[in-house]
């Protein structure tokens, strides 16, 4: 799948290629957590410990060329699997090894929290969302089983162009669909899909998601002046997918996306809050739960997860690993921090540069 020069370029960008088609790269929030500077939004929203999370993909290939993608390397373009199929046990073993090797520098780092670094040696979560389209790996279900046997939770992100793979996917900890536009015309403009029936595939993927009984989430990446409108159309698609959670996130003007979009296309956090407040008016089953300002993201959840006046969006990982065929309601925990900060535009603009530096780490 990858040429020698492509692998060398990835290595320069601190990726580690695993076998023929997988890759690992340490998330900036993992490093931030080890330095004692706080974790990512998945910690605040769902209880994932960022220092024990491994970021990887099982396929460098993608069927989209999203204009907002920040990644410096353009994955191979393909609609179907055309390569050798690596053994899932090898992928798991080599991915963990590469992940740990990328973090070993913290062992002697004065900025590192030694206790947190020691805990980072035990991976407890995997984010299958690094680049490409991980769900098309032919042995994805076998790999998921291996993760779960090791007590590693699974978070998989798909671009909704492979509905059959979504339908056939075994229960995972949380399934994500990226919903990048509210209309057929905008989706073509933003995702630059290879499939001619991209809109039909998206809608079928949402229908398949709605059939899942485990935790599901739809993520919106909001690009100012491009896809920050058509609230009713967004709502119709969201209702079709029937996710437990919705993440409304700002496009970030970093990486290769700067060649395709302008800085003005990056919303400030307050604009994401305003968009979310308008969107939830179109979604009677949902309400706003929380926010993570550095990531400029808002969490919406079904109102049924608010019990006795308290939101429950965190994950009971112990229950999940005892029986990963549970319904969402069966492995929830209370959410420690909820609500919005109420910060104004001036405060957020002052924080803007600091946040961007953190995100590019």
Supply the key terms.
about 350 residues; alpha/beta; TIM Barrel; ten-stranded mixed beta sheet; two-stranded antiparallel sheet; 14 strands; disordered C terminus
What does this structure look like?
It is built from 13 helices and 14 strands. The chain is α/β, with parallel strands linked by helices and 361 residues long. It has one domain: Aldolase class I (TIM Barrel). The strands form 3 sheets. The chain has a 10-stranded mixed β-sheet with strand order 1-2-3-4-5-6-7-8-10-9, sandwiched between helices. A two-stranded antiparallel ribbon has the order 11-12. Helix 10 links the parallel strand 7 and strand 8 (245-250). The longest helix is centred in the N-terminal third of the chain and has 16 residues, at 88-103. The chain starts with a helix and ends with a helix.
Architecture blueprint of SSEs:
Layout lengths: L3 H9 L3 E3 L3 E3 L3 H7 L6 H6 L6 E5 L30 H16 L10 H7 L4 E4 L11 H10 L3 E6 L4 H6 L5 E5 L5 H8 L6 H13 L5 E7 L8 H11 L3 E6 L18 H12 L5 E7 L4 E6 L3 E2 L2 E2 L2 E2 L1 H6 L9 E2 L11 H15 L2
Parallel strand pairs: 3-4, 4-5, 5-6, 6-7, 7-8
Antiparallel strand pairs: 1-2, 2-3, 8-10, 9-10, 11-12, 13-14
Helix pairs in contact: 4-6, 9-10
Report the end-to-end length measured between terminal Cα atoms: 28 Å
Helix fraction bin = 25-40%
What integer is the average pLDDT? 91
Assign the CATH class.
Alpha Beta
Radius of gyration based on Cα positions: 19 Å
Strand order of the largest sheet: 1-2-3-4-5-6-7-8-10-9
Structural class, judged by helices and strands?
Answer: alpha/beta
- Low-confidence parts: 355-361
Examine the coordinates and then state which fold CATH places here, giving the name of the CATH topology: TIM Barrel
| Total DSSP E strands | 14
Number of helices: 13
